[in-house]
Amino acid sequence: MSTTNNTFGVAFYLKKQKTTQAGKSPIYARITVNGKRIEISVKRSIEDNNWNATKGMAKGSREETVKLNKYLDQFTAGIIDSYQQLLLQKKFYYRRTLKRKSYRGRSGRVYTL
């Protein structure tokens, strides 16, 4: 009987190529599963100087920064939950399914890019 090691990770980064004239860059999540990755927008933006690239989160303690970091934590938790559900269901094509699940709205509908 052989076992497989599944690797999984979520990291946030700024997509600086899409910086607006106001100086805000969109935040993207990079989800890596077994060495294959997908990138999705988290539908939030921030100024480059307010972003900690090492930690993958906003810098500071202002109310809007705290709310953004909390949103990113919840976003990560949702992705991890979806990944764990896929593992339990033994679905082996994670990337596309995980991307669909991460865009699920409150109504339960699935939104894709």
Structure notes:
Strand 2 (about 25-35) and strand 3 (about 35-45) form a beta hairpin. The radius of gyration is 15 Å and the shape is elongated. The strands form two sheets. Strands 1-2-3 form a three-stranded antiparallel sheet. A two-stranded antiparallel sheet has the order 4-5. It has two helices and five strands; from the N terminus they run E-E-E-E-E-H-H. The chain has helices at about 65-90, 95-100; strands spanning about 10-15, 25-35, 35-45, 50, 55-60. It is an alpha+beta fold and about 110 residues long.
Give the helix proportion (percent range). Answer: 25-40%
> Would you identify the regions where 5 or more consecutive residues have pLDDT less than 50?
109-113
Instruction: Classify the secondary structure makeup into a structural class.
Output: alpha+beta
Tell the overall outline: elongated
Mean of residue pLDDT values = 82
Supply the number of helical segments: 2
The run of helices and strands is: EEEEEHH
User: What topology, given as strand order, has the largest sheet?
Assistant: 1-2-3
| Main β sheet profile | 3 strands, antiparallel
- Computed CA radius of gyration, to the nearest angstrom: 15 Å
- Per DSSP, what share of the residues sits in E-state strands of 2 or more residues? 25-35%
Distance between the termini: 39 Å
Number of DSSP strand runs: 5
